[in-house]
Amino acid sequence: MQQSERNLDRFLAWLRSEGPEAALQYLNSGVPHRYSAIYRFEGELLRNVALHDKRRQMRPQFLIAVPFKQSFCQFVRRDQVFRTEDSASDERLAGHPYRGVVVSYHSAPVLNDQGALWGTMSHFDMGRQPLPEPEFDLLREAALALGSFVAHLVE
Which residues, 6+ apart, have CB-to-CB distance to 142 below 8 Å? Predict the structure, then answer.
């Protein structure tokens, strides 16, 4: 598939016909990141509800539920989006326990039908990865469009 063909309508078609995992795979196919994921806020935790891994390995235990205060998703809640290509050199993350562990992280908020913050949609990697602006725009659009589907997302 050519880069110019990647768009929100195709993401939604995958989401409707094949489900969130296939839609994440579609998003992930246009980026260098190993993982693309959907997390929901659940009290003091972030719960993974969908994950695509380019290596097609089992979901690692540490990605199933992440303490909110140790997540990068907390910055999405605070700032509406969060992006870092290299967390090890990102001064905003000084003192953060995952600085330099999850190295590349690009995330946008997922809102529910009422417009309340429900969770996040992210591309991330344990290595440094750039994210072109058109791909970040697609991630944000997809995260916003996901709102009407979140009631159906279950772990």
Answer: 8, 11, 23, 27, 108, 121
**Alpha-carbon span 133 to 97, nearest angstrom:** 27
Report pTM: 0.88
**Rounded to whole angstroms, what are the CA distances from 21 to 17, 36, 109, 153?**
11, 9, 18, 10
Structure-token pair, residue 91: 């001064």
In this structure, are strands 82-84 and 65-67 parallel, antiparallel, or unpaired?
unpaired
Per residue, the 3-state secondary structure of 133-147, as one string, reads HHHHHHHHHHHHHHH
pLDDT, tens digit, 9 for 90 and up, residues 39-63:
999 989 889 888 999 988 766 666 7
